[in-house]
Amino acid sequence: MSRNLKALIGPSILNADLSQLFEESQKLLNNGADYLHLDVMDGHFVPNLTFGHPIVKCLRSKIKDAFFETHMMVSKPEQWIAPMADAGVNQYTFHIEPVTNVEDVCRKIRESGMKVGVAIKPGTPVSEVEKYISISDMVLIMTVEPGFGGQKFMENQMAKVQYLRENYPLLNIEVDGGVGPSTISCCANAGANMIVSGTAVIGAADQASTIKLLRDTVQTAIDK
Ligand SMILES: O=C(CO)[C@@H](O)[C@H](O)COP(=O)(O)O
Ligand SMILES: [Co+2]
């Protein structure tokens, strides 16, 4: 794999104690998280609700320098670009499934100063997202049906990761859903370099060593 790639671990705070959002987030960063993955759900694109830009803005007011990725599980991603940029988001990752003009959304995200992530659900073919790689900074391959933390990792999604890594050696490929110590080798060997992990990190007795294990496994596969 290309040595120019970097293994990055972005814990999801979805299953954390959200009444302590700042403390939980700061703890993850102190324990070595490379970035925070913030799951935004609108109750329409997915059957669950979380939080939006006002909460992200509050978190940003207390955490100045961490990289924030918002995973936008929403039906109208275009609607939240400006508010999320204003809230201090660094990367805006959105699902392409409900969007008719993906190029437009990518351009608007970039113009607002954020990085662009494009995401697909397990049922969406990789060819659907491949079209947008040249105008994106990252592709997210979901390894569960989006909507809830704590689900079982879908190993059959690794074929998509493998295909992308073989064809795009420098692409940032993120996986999200059911990723933890027992599934990380699968992700690393397929070629993912950006790892979202929720329950496995939040619930770990030792967060720092869990984050390190995830990162070391991925970096070792990259350096092979
Ligand atoms: O986007 C999602 C779920 O829709 C994820 O970010 C998960 O919330 C990650 O949590 P685990 O599956 O690792 O518990
Ligand atoms: Co997510």
Automatic annotation (TrEMBL):
Pfam entry (one): Ribul_P_3_epim
Coiled-coil portions: none
Entry annotated with the keyword Endoplasmic reticulum: no
Cofactor(s) of this protein: Zn(2+); Mn(2+); Co(2+); Fe(2+)
Keywords: Carbohydrate metabolism, Isomerase, Metal-binding
Catalyzed reactions per annotation: D-ribulose 5-phosphate = D-xylulose 5-phosphate
Principal EC category: isomerase
Entry EC number(s): 5.1.3.1
Domain of life: Eukaryota
InterPro entries assigned to the protein according to its UniProt record, in alphabetical order: Aldolase_TIM, Ribul_P_3_epim, Ribul_P_3_epim-like, RibuloseP-bd_barrel
Similarity annotation: Belongs to the ribulose-phosphate 3-epimerase family.
Name of the protein: Ribulose-phosphate 3-epimerase
Protein's organism: Loxostege sticticalis (Beet webworm moth)
Record lineage: Eukaryota, Metazoa, Ecdysozoa, Arthropoda, Hexapoda
